[in-house]
Amino acid sequence: MSRVLLAEDEFLIRAVMVDALDEVGLRCIEAATGQAALDVVTGSDELAAIIVDIGLPDMSGEKVIEAARQHRPDVPIIRCSGASMPQDGGGSGIHVFPKPYSPTDLSRFVASLIGTASKQPS
Questions:
Q1: Peptide bond into 100 cis (omega under 30)
Q2: From residue 101, how far is each of 35, 58, 70, 79 by CA, in Å?
Q3: Per-residue confidence band for 3, with pLDDT thresholds at 50, 70 and 90
């Protein structure tokens, strides 16, 4: 099962996203802070994708994205924010997913990025 890093400080959003990602066959590594996300990004866990909320409590998600681009250049990054942003996400390998979002839509988007077939019934 592929692993995805989810950097999201809001517990309820994180919990719902973990379930939605599991439904499409993805295991989630949760990070409630930017530092926790940085620890995963710079660690040795294999990651298929990285989902980052820009509004983390201890640092901007942009710092997590910057570290991810440096340490995991081949891993797709999904930038989530309620603020308006360029649709290109600021560079190759960065995808924009505006808030509010449907957990089902985001999890299916992530699965399609990394080529994981959905286990959800039709």
A1: yes
A2: 24, 23, 27, 12
A3: very high
Q: State the angle between helix axes of 34-41 and 61-71 in degrees (0 to 180), rounded to the nearest 10.
A: 0
| CB count in 10 Å sphere of residue 8 | 24
- Average pLDDT, stretch 45-55? 96
Question: Architecture of 2-114 per CATH?
Answer: 3-Layer(aba) Sandwich (3.40)
pTM as predicted: 0.89
pLDDT at 108 over 50: yes
Tokens of 75: 């891993």
- Residue carrying structure tokens 């990394």: 114
